[in-house]
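Worked example 2:
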Amino acid sequence: MADVIFNNKVGYGSSVSGFSTFPITLQIPGKPPFTQGAKGEGGDTPYDLHTVIITSIGTSQAANFQFMQTLREHIYVYVFGDKVGQLQVTGLMFAGDCTRGKSEGFSNVLKWYNENKISSKENKGKPITITAGNTHFTAFLVNVQTSVDRPVEGLGTFTLTFLTTGF
């Protein structure tokens, strides 16, 4: 069992085994999943995802309503259902992996975003199924933010923003 996360090569990560993680999968019908540790054909992970680590997932949901107060001190409540929710997936990007040293997390995140955003020709507005634990979301990828926060170590962060119709 490995007991380090970063090895002595700047910007590269080491494999850590024996730790339990929260399972998060981003699945588009007919495409390989964006998930940690998923193996594609030939043993490679789709999009070389071993150069990113998903560190958090967060949701924001709200009801759609209106309160109206009259001059006679009556209060009326109008309920219109739910607003469109927001889901964000955040993580770390590595400059490369510990075995091949030729992959870049920054490029892979941008490539995945451009291929799967709601407006891409390849996606054609198809929803993405996001599974976090036992909860499933139907969502549309609408935004990405990337930042190389620690260039000396070859580390950066990314945030994928989705709009969701609930779970």
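DSSP finds one helix and nine strands in the chain. The radius of gyration is 20 Å.
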